[in-house]
Amino acid sequence: MKILLISENTNLSPSYFKMFEGDYIENKQDVVIRYDVESAKDFLTNTVIEHQKHIDFIIADYSARDFKSKVNELAEWLRHSQKTYSTRNFQFASLPFFVMNNSSLINQNYEQLFGFGREPLDEIKYYDGIIFKPDNFERIGIYNNSLSSGLDNWLDLLKSDLDHLDIDHTNKYKLDPRILNSRSFKLRILSTSFHLNINRLDYIWANNNEKILASTGDEILKLMKLYERNPTLRNEKGIHDILKQNKHILKGEDYYKSIYEKQFYTKQGKKYVESDFINFIYEYSCNR
To answer: Are 219 and 185 in a shared domain?
Structure first.
């Protein structure tokens, strides 16, 4: 996943990113960091909106009241936006936005903050949840926390949008323009222009790949352990075969296809350079 982190602390510990690694990001490079709200808004405006790039969610981590006020203004601006992002597939106003627990929030009345028996504070309604920062930056995990539940809710709303339009992400059912016109007011995540894209919603998290990824990982791990025990059995083609059969490993979140052992001939004639795999990156990728 790609995260926009708005951090008041300009001296983040390398351990900070362990909270997300393995579950939400592969490494620190998957996190776009901005140390003030103004530059974060510039990134959202000039990169995510103008160039239609994709990020998965925003986190604001702060403690000062002035910083908090600016973050609230940013969240309000985002929620009232009419723009799109990710090659015009999604409504910008739907982008998941979380705040990290901090002293200014902790010191408030939690019953009022979370709406237990009362109306929640106006400022909280713009966020998808409050993430509790684990001690020693331990992994947040994907169960029983507001980050995972907030992202699950976003995916549920996306599926509801597709159901409203009688289609699915694989384009098994073609979109009926009459249905789009009559039901577009129901859309919470999808933009009304998403159907103009040539490609379907080919995001790795939009597919049911959890079991596939787990079984593929077990298969590769088993092969690696075999090679470690007996180096004479090492077979590069065997690894290539697994990768070709499980293209989602090569594609990840940033690439839509790959070509295998493409030969690039030099000007000398018969000499060539050969790559094992060459990946083609999505237009919406922030790495492009």
So the answer is: no
